[in-house]
Design a protein that fits this description.
The complex is a heterodimer of chains A (265) and B (88).
Chain A: E1 4-9, H1 17-30, E2 35-39, H2 47-51, H3 61-65, H4 71-74, E3 76-77, E4 84-87, H5 100-111, E5 116-120, H6 127-134, E6 138-143, H7 147-162, E7 169-175, H8 177-181, H9 188-195, E8 198-204, H10 207-215, H11 226-238, H12 254-264
Parallel strand pairs in A: 1-5, 1-6, 2-4, 2-5, 6-7, 7-8
Antiparallel strand pairs in A: 3-4
Helix pairs in contact in A: 1-11, 5-6
Chain B: H1 4-8, H2 14-31, H3 35-52, E1 61-67, E2 70-76, H4 82-86
Antiparallel strand pairs in B: 1-2
The chains are: A alpha/beta (265), B alpha+beta (88).
The structure holds adenosine-5'-triphosphate and magnesium ion (MG).
Amino acid sequence: MSAKIVTITSGKGGVGKTTAVANIAVALASLGARVCCIDGDIGLRNLDVVMGLENRIVYDIVDVIEGRCRLRQAMIRDKRLPELYLIPAAQTRDKSAVSPSDMVRLGDELRNEVDWVLIDSPAGIERGFRNSIAAADQVLVITNPEVSAVRDADRVIGLLEAEEKGSPSLILNRLNPSMVRNHDMLSAEDVLDLLAIRLIGVVPEDENVIVGTNRGTPIALEPKSIAGQAFRNIARRMCGEDVPFLELDNKGSLWARIQRMTGRK
Amino acid sequence: MSSFFDRITGRKRSAKSAKERLQLVLVHDRTDMTQLEMEALRDDILAVISRHIDVDPDGVRIDLERDGREQRLVADIPLRSMARRRSG
Ligand SMILES: Nc1ncnc2c1ncn2[C@@H]1O[C@H](COP(=O)(O)OP(=O)(O)OP(=O)(O)O)[C@@H](O)[C@H]1O
Ligand SMILES: [Mg+2]
């Protein structure tokens, strides 16, 4: 079987790309899939600390691309799960060390090694973003329910459509249900109506995300965490399962409301 | 946060403002047209149409609208009735 390459990108910085990659990777690997994450944020390496693998780095993505090591040598194995790997970003190089065609070549090589390749894109719409989407079969755009994040997500979706990358799917992160209830935060329906792409997950604001990051333990590994559950659900939807959306709110399930919305169109 | 005070003074809930502002911004971002350019387009369209037929400028509506991820230019241009035209 050949791997599916999925890139997570956002336009705006700090909306949760790295958090999502780490958690979805852990969730997919927990389902028994072979997963390799790539930190595409060259010069601003971060996925390693979020996954808790920072002490194990020997080689990085630029070493593989420039032939200083074999692919397998740069794949750090996460020992918590049977088949989860990370290829870290280079820290002392800049984005010009990698080209989109390098990424396509790396992706093709990885296709025979694993089932899923997840690429953590840097913020912005320049070289690092271009590199990150070059090899992608599917793109997930992540945003927060805030004006600037939604606007930037829309811009990225437009660029992806122009690149003929197919329609991306949306992850809405850091939704605060009580603010939505008070009409002081855009709801999932509002954001979906504005961006008009398929929704693949809604992750609530959850302080355990930060606790998990502090420890280097993605919260998708915590069975009781609500945000962890949201990330696990995204992984299952990526595998084609039809998983109802979490009830984050007590006024009727989000899923029922989304079904009503999409049924109307 | 909208407080009770905001509500009784009629200030709009912030989520509603966010959505309305985004609706406008996204249409202009997607079409790469500013409000000013849109006004110029509106004036040009009206000028061309008025050369052929009498329009009622007060009722004219020419706007960019979102339809999913597509944008369309929607024009609703009422014509002045012949009776009014004759009577000046
Ligand atoms: N659902 C959530 N609840 C609470 N905190 C969150 C959530 N998701 C992300 N965060 C926090 O938000 C911050 C930014 O997240 P992250 O680093 O994943 O964003 P990013 O998009 O990768 O940023 P950059 O653009 O800088 O790469 C982190 O401190 C993270 O712990
Ligand atoms: Mg990041």
